[in-house]
Amino acid sequence: MGDEPVMATNDDASECKRGAVQLGYWTDDYISYFVRHVERRAPEINRGYYARVKGIENFIQKFISKAGSTAQILNFGSGFDTLYWKLKDEGVQIANYVEIDFPTVTAKKCYTIKRNKPLLQRIHDQDGEVKLSSTDLHAGNYHCIGVDIRNISQLEIKLRQAEVNFDRPTLFIAECVLVYIENECVNRLLTWISSKFKAGLFVNYEMCNMNDTFGEVMLGNLRVRGCNLAGIAHCKNLEMQKARFMNNGWLGSKAWDMVEIYYAISQSERHRIEKIEFLDEQELLIQLFQHYCICIGWLSQEFSELTCTDE
């Protein structure tokens, strides 16, 4: 079966995000270029994706406000993520933005960017040069590279091609990525990052509390689709998620389940999205939120005070 079912999770997540955007949960002017077809999802799923997007966004904003314009962002398993274009539209200045995924996925993304002028125009300035291969794209401060992150030596080569500066403050993002990777490979990746980069913050969105009945049902659904959850052992609870960073050379770590993340969003914003769709069973949403979390790890003291609250 290999990595194909894992790659397919990108299509599923992108469709879910586009569906939620269409209903008005949040704004994304670019997702429609990557996702054409959308089936309506259950309200719990839409709210789950909303919490995920808002929760991660909160840490991105806090990181950039601390790191400033020298910041770099490395987005692991980025799929059809549109964050780069969103930041560009907001006028956010950063030094470098690198998207990393399997070559099969980045090939599709590069092709879509090339074919859609609004995407292409935003990634380089007037005089900027666009370097494009079948799986990689380099333009200005935007890079999309195809590489298996389990292969550290190949990853390092590709990051150098993407002009990554290991001395700059760097934000690492992973959304439901590490769970599909063998634990020793994740440990190797986290150890390599902590030894290579001087300052950084890792924001990891992942499953947690998986050793109950609800968790078993979730895992069963993924296994039916052929997804091998090689890293599920670290998803038992929040403590294990944090330990993963602490055991691999990181300075500190914190974790929150998505119940906490959701209720940290301002009340007015929650009320706005709760009016979009009627939710019959609040209990199911809470159960879903209890089985996902955001865990952060930091390499430098300035990121140790970050919390999930919407300050």
From TrEMBL:
Keyword Repressor: no
InterPro entries: LCMT1 (IPR016651), Ppm1/Ppm2/Tcmp (IPR007213), SAM-dependent_MTases_sf (IPR029063)
Superkingdom of origin organism: Eukaryota
GO molecular function: protein C-terminal leucine carboxyl O-methyltransferase activity
Enzyme class: transferase
One GO term of the biological process aspect: methylation
UniProt-listed Pfam families: LCM (PF04072)
Function description: Methylates the carboxyl group of the C-terminal leucine residue of protein phosphatase 2A catalytic subunits to form alpha-leucine ester residues.
Annotated family: Belongs to the methyltransferase superfamily. LCMT family.
The protein's name: Leucine carboxyl methyltransferase 1
